[in-house]
Amino acid sequence: MKKIILTAAILSALLVSCNETKQKHGDVLETTGVSNENHDASDPHSNHEEVLLHATDNSWVEEIKLDSGKKWDANFETTDGVEKMMVLVKTSETKTIESYHALASDLNEVKNYVVKECTMDGPSHDNLHVFLHPLIEKIDALGKVTSEDTAAEIKASIQENLEGYYTYFQ
Fold this sequence. Notes:
This is Lipoprotein. The chain is mainly alpha-helical.
């Protein structure tokens, strides 16, 4: 329960702290969460498939833009944090649900550092949010998984998300 409250508080703080930038540039970034509204309790796989589909979605690459064909300049802390998350994903021995949850916790700590230390503004900042929102959701989903297969797929999607950072930011 504490993790859910903490995640909600951090996501709220992220959205509130960035509200001024969004209003200044007129761009509103939408976030979506994993919903259990349509969960069929009689089908144990329905929620699994919904969570997996949402947590492995990389459609953010269709929304993000380059800076006139060039990569956006990111602050050191953001790039450093992405590098640290990549190392965690590549080096973590994830063989149990508990180890996936531990990885999610470690990734969440680094992600919180990135959010807290972000000094970017303007279009580069807006595009960073396009990158970060799905990553935040994936980390949250990894921390809640109950299936090793789902966890492995979400971990792979997190790695793909992190690798995508280098396509758009420097």
